[in-house]
Amino acid sequence: MQIHGLNKTTLLDYPEHVAATVFTGGCNFRCPFCHNRDLVLNPSRQPVIEEKEILDFLKKRKGIITGVCVTGGEPTLQSDLKDFLGKVKEIGLHVKLDTNGYRPEILMDVVENGLADYVAMDIKSSKEGYAEVIGLERSLFNMENIEKSVAYLMQNKIPYEFRTTVVKELHTEKEIDQIGQWIKGCRAYYLQSYEENENVIQKVFHPCTKEELLTFKQRLSQYIDNVQLRGIEE
């Protein structure tokens, strides 16, 4: 596994678990508002943490932490992802996989083999706006891959959530309505507000106001029962 970061303890990344978060390098998207610029654009230049070091840490912390969140970058790009998740499961820890959903065959393989206990998939935009928001030419992007992952998770074979980082310049009420219609009836949908930091790929965006997010939530509630704002007190 190409591991470039470890958050040793988090109460936020894995619902209902005290967890550690492992950050993998590389991504097949180029979302301009991404907070992990170096992991996405220059993973080979980042310090590497040996897999054994991670696993030894997890073994020592078992009992204090109950779960591991594997995020990125995009974890499904890692050729030995299944092997690593299997080792984490052998330790006796729960696994949460974060993914952009572009490799549905990997997602399905992980789930069907019992290597994840929870999946969080990003919904970047409406189907029509996806390519623009992820920073790719439409000719280089296959929307069907995202649709397959969404449809698979909505079969409820595993606890999951969809989530969108809401950016003022990219997400309108129309976009939000189209997303709601697309993932209607899903298990859980979280909106999290964009926040600029020094690691953003392009520093040209702004967060929505709390009032705007609450309006989005209200609009989404006609399609989805469980809509929540993450990181914002309502």
Q: What features would you highlight for this structure?
A:
TIM Barrel; eight-stranded mixed β-sheet; 8 helices
Q: What portion of the residues fall into strands of 2 or more residues?
A: 15-25%
Succession of helices and strands: EEHHEHEHEHHEHEHE
Number of helices: 8
CATH class: Alpha Beta
Task: Report the strand count.
Answer: 8
Question: In the CATH scheme, what's the topology name?
Answer: TIM Barrel
Rounded Rg? 17 Å
Give the distance, in angstroms, between the N- and C-terminal Cα atoms. Answer: 39 Å
Number of spatially distinct domains: 1
Strand adjacency order, main sheet: 1-2-3-4-5-6-7-8
Described by the principal axes of the CA atoms, the overall outline is globular
Mean pLDDT: 95
Give me the CATH architecture, please.
Alpha-Beta Barrel
Structural class based on helices, strands and sheet pairing: alpha/beta
CATH superfamily, by name, is Aldolase class I
Give a structural overview.
The protein has 234 residues and is of the alpha/beta class. It has one domain (3-230): Aldolase class I (TIM Barrel). 31% of the residues lie in helices and 20% in strands. The chain is built from eight helices and eight strands; from the N terminus they run ββααβαβαβααβαβαβ. It has helices at residues 37-41, 51-61, 81-91, 104-112, 130-133, 143-153, 173-182, 210-220; strands at residues 3-10, 19-24, 67-71, 94-99, 118-122, 160-166, 189-193, 227-230. Helix 4 packs parallel to helix 6 (143-153) and helix 7 (173-182) packs parallel to helix 8. The longest helix is centred in the N-terminal third of the chain and has 11 residues, at 51-61. The mean pLDDT is 95.
